[in-house]
């Protein structure tokens, strides 16, 4: 009879540390949260933390990387199933961004972590790498949906991707700061306006 594995895998451990860190960061702040508290919240020892991450900064970088990878994976899956822009946007609106992703459930913590990393200039290339990956994703979406619509965009796709990403980040921040005057669908309304300006509206 085969033995049942009871010890968590490395991925299981990392996922639990991500979830625990998100809770602790929200409760105590990123700067005030200790490695011991994060490990305890995940049900692990301090040694288990250090077997996965060298420092709290490395944990944060890994959480941001995991968030971007999960987001890109989910959105590319959507694009495979919905290759024209109206259908893709409808699917994107209903996508569960928080599934197995603590930063997807907490946009404010996500931004706080980005700013925390950005304070250290030597860490900014880590953020830049993920920003470029997000821009490429949006550029690919624009190129694919424009091609499938049979229309050529009047804007350079790379520049259009940068615009779309800036709109998303900007409206997310505005929504956090002033939800009363920033409607939940502000980003998608802006995308509709940009879509028409680019000449790739649905026929």
UniProtKB/TrEMBL annotation:
UniProt KW Signal keyword: no
**What's a Pfam family in this record?**
TetR_C_31
Q: Which residues form the HTH tetR-type domain?
A: 11-71
Q: Which InterPro entries match?
A: Homeodomain-like_sf, HTH-type_TetR-like_transc_reg, HTH_TetR, Tet_transcr_reg_TetR-rel_C_sf, TetR_C_31
Tell me the GO molecular function terms: DNA-binding transcription factor activity; transcription cis-regulatory region binding
| DNA-binding segment(s) | 34-53
Source domain of life: Bacteria
Please provide the record's keywords in A-Z order. DNA-binding
The record's listing under Gene3D superfamilies reads: Tetracycline Repressor, domain 2 (1.10.357.10)
Q: What is this protein called?
A: Transcriptional regulator
Source organism per UniProt: Bradyrhizobium jicamae
Question: Lineage, please?
Answer: Bacteria, Pseudomonadati, Pseudomonadota, Alphaproteobacteria, Hyphomicrobiales
């Amino acid at each position: 009879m085969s033995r049942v594995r009871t010890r968590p895998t490395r991925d299981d451990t990392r996922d639990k540390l991500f979830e625990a860190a998100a809770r602790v960061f929200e409760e105590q702040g990123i700067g005030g949260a200790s490695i011991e508290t994060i490990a305890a919240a995940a049900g692990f020892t301090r040694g288990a933390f250090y077997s996965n991450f060298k420092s709290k900064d490395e944990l944060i970088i890994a959480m941001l990387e995991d968030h971007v990878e999960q987001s890109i994976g989910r959105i590319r899956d959507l694009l495979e199933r919905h290759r024209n822009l109206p259908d893709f946007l409808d699917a994107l609106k209903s996508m569960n961004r928080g599934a197995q992703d603590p930063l997807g459930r907490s946009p404010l913590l996500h931004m706080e972590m980005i700013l925390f990393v950005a304070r250290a200039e030597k860490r900014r290339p880590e953020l830049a790498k993920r920003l470029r990956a997000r821009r490429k994703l949006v550029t690919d979406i624009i190129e694919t949906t424009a091609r499938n619509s049979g229309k050529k965009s009047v804007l350079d796709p790379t520049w259009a991707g940068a615009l779309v990403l800036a709109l998303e980040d900007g409206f997310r921040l505005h929504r956090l700061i002033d939800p009363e005057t920033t409607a939940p669908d502000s980003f998608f309304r802006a995308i509709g306006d940009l879509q028409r300006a680019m000449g790739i509206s649905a026929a």
